[in-house]
Amino acid sequence: MSGAIIGAAIEVHRQLGPGLLESAYESCLERELTVRGLGVERQRIVPVTYRGLRVPRAYRMDFVVNRLVVVEIKAVDRVLQIHEAQLLSYLRLSNLKLGLLINFHVGLLKHGIKRLCLL
Question: Residue 58's pLDDT is what?
Fold first, then answer.
């Protein structure tokens, strides 16, 4: 599954290159994933519950692919630890195990992909 997602992201990066806004990559990646026959849920809402208080729209994940993989995309100079922490939080809150952090602001996309798992 992650290989198919990464292949789609590589195609988007090959066509567009670095330097665009995250929203452009998000729209194009959604299209590429859909064309490849993957189930895509974009901007999935993640609620947070704290001591009985439910915050229904606390966060939004960029994508959930085939109800299994969280994909968080960035277009930044450097992926920071906070970006990884964000993806790990999404995995915990959604009860999913696999996440991909994809930064499109790199010369070669393979240098912008990080795979994170919860055990």
Answer: 83
Domain residue ranges of the chain, discontinuous segments joined by +: 2-117
Global pTM? 0.93
Task: Report the alpha-carbon distance of residue 40 to residue 77 in Å, rounded.
Answer: 27
In angstroms, what CA-CA distances link 33 with 3, 18, 64, 77? 12, 19, 11, 25
CB distance 26 to 38 below 8 Å? no
Residue 56 binned pLDDT confidence (cut-offs 50, 70, 90): confident
H or E element, residue 81 = helix 81-94
Confidence of residue 36 (pLDDT cuts 50, 70, 90): very high
The residue behind tokens 């064309």 is 35
CA gap 31, 35 in Å, rounded: 6
Burial class (CB in 10 A: 0-12, 13-18, 19+), 95: exposed
Q: Which residues contact 6 (CB under 8 A, 6 or more apart)?
A: 100, 102, 113
